[in-house]
Write a structure and sequence with these properties.
This protein folds into two domains: 163 residues, Helix Hairpins; 115 residues, Glucose Permease (Domain IIA). The protein has three helices and 13 strands. Strands 1, 4, 6, 7, 8, 10, 12 and 13 form an eight-stranded antiparallel sheet that branches. A three-stranded antiparallel sheet has the order 5-11-9, with no helix packed on it. Strands 2-3 form a two-stranded antiparallel sheet. A hairpin with a 6-residue loop joins β2 and β3. Keywords: Coiled coil, Signal. GO terms for molecular function: metalloendopeptidase activity.
Amino acid sequence: MKRKHGMALLIILTMATTSLFSFADTAKQITDDLNAKKAEQKKLTNEINKVKKQETQVLAKIQSLEGEIDRSEGEIETLKNKISNTENRISTAIHNIEVAEQNIGHKQDVMGERVNIMYRNGNIGYAEVLLNSKSLTDLLTNLDMVKKIVNHDVELLKEMEAQKAIIEEEKMTLENQKKQLVSLKASVEEKQEKLVVSRGEQEKYRKDLAQNKVELEKMLDQNKKDADNLTNKLRSLQSSSAYVGGVLQWPTPGYTNITSPFGNRIHPILKTKKFHTGIDIGAPNGKNVIAAGAGKVITAGTLGSYGKAVIIDHGGGIMTLYAHNSKLLVSNGDTVTSGQVIALIGSTGASTGPHLHFEVRKNGQYVDPIPYLKGK
């Protein structure tokens, strides 16, 4: 009979232990998955921020290109007006040259006719001037007048030829200016075409970035949903699990000396009899403090006489507290795994030296941590 009872007890303990390790393994896997999701969230957020920065840069580039395109369009319009004005001036010059040529031709015809008449008349013309002259003075005056008329015609013809030459030179200058303007206009138009192509490329890049951002944001949203599901699953697992003693890890690896046990004692500072709500474990300043089990950090900060402290909810009504730390390595809301370093040994708060004050609370009540801890 005793053997049967012993066997039954062994089976119960084995089942309890198996259930316990199964829970721990499952919780650890969920926690690992959750941490992986959080790491992925951080990476995705960084990628999204990077894309947003690139979008801002591309938009600025597009705006700059559009400004250059607008300026080039203004330049082209100005050059068109200058070319049109130059063409009008060239047309005017051509017309003036034609008029000058006509005037020169007409004057040449008149002078030619006059010379022919004088040539045909020979000395008679001079005889007529002599006969018609009333005196020697009158004769000389008449001869001088004839000479002046001829000289005037010659000078006038020279002036006309010179004016024509000036107009032709002006026309040539205007034609050269037109060539330069046309060449400059072609150069600006070529530059504008390149700017338009570049703007098109940047627009395409911007659209690609926008699409990439949409995809990344979808991935981030899905990741957050997955993380929420894992968090809910972990909470459900923790709340539904029946806590069994002896499953918490020793919180100070390598340091097992209990300097003050759980229960009544003389307070080291107040020197009065007070109930000690946990155990004190002596350890050097700066050594690691680890999470005794997987769970969620519900408090991480300075808690009065506890100094810098961390409280972890492990589910099943079990919470652990780690006090007097020199530095905290976790924050409120963090999900931690069993054995994860959460703080460093210190002597903050009401403390006489570096050590860890460790508590276990079950359903809000202080309990002796020793039965809940695995072997040291």
